[in-house]
Amino acid sequence: MNTHHETETLVKRPTEQIYAEYTPHDFLVWKTLYDRQMNILTPNVSAAYLDAIKTIRFTNERIPDFSEVANMLQPLTGWSLEVVPNISPTPTFFKFLSQKKFTATCWLRSMDQLDYLEEPDMFHDVFGHAPLLSNQPYVDFFKGMSDIALKHIDNQDKIDLLGRLYWFTIEFGMIREQGKLKIYGAGIISSKGETEHCLSEKTTHLPFDVATIMNTPYRTDVLQDKYFVIDSFEQLYDSLPEIAAFLEK
């Protein structure tokens, strides 16, 4: 989903993953980002994510192979990754989600872009998003949200409201586990700055509430100043009827 600013002219990116084309530099970037993020994530990320990254066998030494990821996800949740060159247009994004396919880029940033990249690369898309595609309540919510979106795909105002929901859950959501705040949103998971920032005293943590989220705009070009906290992924899934009803108003 296009939750980032698009540049006027997008760089031409690969439309399929050809694993043999990854360079030693690509592997170094993956390892550097992986090690740095896991170091700060391990005490702060959801236990579900730590379990999931083991389930789909991500390591610092090897860039994920999309076909292998699909082979591991299929018997668990039926999901897979769909290679796209850049940010997907909203209709395309939700169409693939409804088919249990998460659109992901397969190119990596360079070493001089470790801390900031204007458009999402595969570290964000795959390291951030792919592990939790093995979690059934999480993907049930993901698919349910996409099914609702497709019903309103020609109504930009309602799609914008769903964009807020996507932003404050899938991208920048937090979860309370055993009384402690933990991270599950991919936008936090894939960002060193956001990971360090989201648990600081500079931010506000609000209970998950559909109406509040739908009425809360966000910015894509700054560290977030507020995060919505769920109690479980089942809570997200159980909120789907309320989301659908809100959009019917």
What is the CATH fold-level name?
A: Phenylalanine Hydroxylase
Rg (CA only): 17 Å
Total of domains? 1
Kindly state the mean pLDDT as a whole number? 93
Q: Name the shape in a single word.
A: globular
The secondary structure category is alpha/beta
Strand order of the largest sheet: 4-3-6-5
The count of DSSP E runs of length 2 or more, i.e. the number of strands, is 6
Q: What low-confidence regions span 5 or more consecutive residues with pLDDT below 50?
A: 4-9
Task: Give me a quick take on this structure.
By secondary structure, the protein is an alpha/beta fold. It has one domain: Aromatic amino acid hydroxylase (Phenylalanine Hydroxylase). Helices cover 46% and strands 10% of the residues.
Could you walk me through the main structural features you see in this protein, from its secondary elements to its overall organization?
This protein is an alpha/beta fold. The chain has one domain: Phenylalanine Hydroxylase. The protein contains 12 helices and 6 strands. The strands form 2 sheets. A 4-stranded mixed β-sheet has the order 4-3-6-5. Strand 5, helix 10 and strand 6 form a beta-alpha-beta unit. It is globular, with a radius of gyration of 17 Å. About 2% of the residues have low confidence.
